Amino acid sequence: MADTFDPAMRSWIMSRVLPRDTKLEKFVGGVLKQSGIRFSSEGKNLPGKPDIVIRRIRLAVFVNGCFWHWHGCKRCRMPASNAAYWERKIARNVARDRRTKRALGLIGWHYCTVWECSVSTGVARLIGKVRKLEAAEPSEE
Known about the structure:
The protein is mainly alpha-helical. The chain has a single domain (20-136), classed as VSR Endonuclease (Endonuclease, Chain A, 3-Layer(aba) Sandwich). 48% of the residues lie in helices and 11% in strands. The protein is built from 5 helices and 3 strands. The protein has helices spanning 7-15, 23-34, 66-69, 83-106, 119-136; strands at residues 52-54, 59-64, 110-115. A 3-stranded mixed beta sheet has the order 1-2-3, with helices on both faces. A hairpin with a 4-residue loop joins strand 1 and strand 2 (59-64). The longest helix has 24 residues, at 83-106. The radius of gyration is 17 Å and the shape is elongated. The termini are far apart. The model has no long low-confidence stretch (mean pLDDT 89).
């Protein structure tokens, strides 16, 4: 199926897609806040620029869309038009995600990914990981 917009209009539309503060990120942040977990949305100095950072326990949280990061669920359907472009694009995203997680590990950070298709499960897993890392943290007495 051909694009219904000319390249200039498509470029303008895509420029309006913001990379930060999505509804999903705000939801995850809200649940963390309700759970009493302090966090920051400023992870730009870390590999991969995590969406949420819990510095105290060195945890980087990525809130990922299933299509863009190729989760493998039913939301991951390769577009029929321009398939070669999309296959390369998604492969680059997945490879970058792998490199990011490896880089975080090398500097002593943990990471957790919350996927768009299973937000409630992902948030529960995230809170469990936070609690586990807090328990392992040496107490300051």
